[in-house]
Amino acid sequence: MPGPAHETRLTTRARRWHRRHMAPLPSDTPPEMHVPRPDEATPADEMTMARAWLGHLRQSAIYKLEGLDDEQLRWQPAPTANSLGAIVVHLGYAERLWLRVIFAGEPMDMAWRTQIFVVPDGWSVADVVAFYRAETAAADAVLDAASSFDLRSRGEIRPSTLRWVVVHLIEEIARHAGHMDITRELLDGTTGR
User: Fold this and answer.
1) Shortest CA distance to 62 belongs to which of 140, 113, 126?
2) Residue 29 — φ and ψ, nearest 5°?
3) Least CB-packed of 64, 176, 179, 188 within 10 Å?
């Protein structure tokens, strides 16, 4: 019958296995980042926190374009993958679609929807970043005018709420920022966020 010595051996083995196979526990201090995250120790209401995360993710996408030349901006890691530039153009159009068209109901010509993953000929990194910043500024104007996440969308495309739209944009930008992390590392070895 197993006794205390058997239990000690199991505990020691379990500890050794854990040290070899499990990731270390998170540090007590946040990691250093090129684009700082919202301060986790500062209390904030839902709108303030969501907008801080939107800002962090937007800047993270722009950071992934730093130092690229025009060819690198358009480089695709696989034939069906998007380039770093195409992803940022897409993110700009996503903010236009979700906040201005769907939520705010802003009327506009929708022909751009066929080009949402296309970096226009002749555009440089500066052009892509300027486009994205212009789109996020227009999206921020919609958010600035909103009094609550509970507001319902005014666009005719689909019913939604501002809360759903903002959470979706956070998810969309975060997912593509992950794609950008991998693409940038494959492109030139640059890592970090």
Assistant:
1) 126
2) -115, 145
3) 188
Q: Which helix (H) or strand (E) holds 128?
A: helix 125-145
- Encoding tokens for residue 94? 């996503």
Name the residue among 171, 172, 151 with its Cα closest to residue 161: 151
Higher-pLDDT residue of 102 and 193 is 102
Tokens of 32: 């250093």
CATH of the domain at 162: 1.20.120.450
161: three-class secondary structure by DSSP: strand
- Is residue 17 situated within a structural domain? no
- pLDDT tens digits along 120-150: 999 999 999 999 999 999 999 999 999 999 9
d(CA 122, CA 105): 32
pLDDT in the model for residue 192: 82
Question: Which phi and psi angles does 19 have, rounded to 5°?
Answer: -65, -35
Digit-coded pLDDT (tens) for 158-167: 999 999 999 9
Residue 40 lies in a domain: no
Q: How many domains is the chain partitioned into structurally?
A: 1
Structural domain boundaries, residue 113: 45-188
Phi-psi region of 192 (alpha: psi -120 to 50; beta: other; left: phi over 0): left
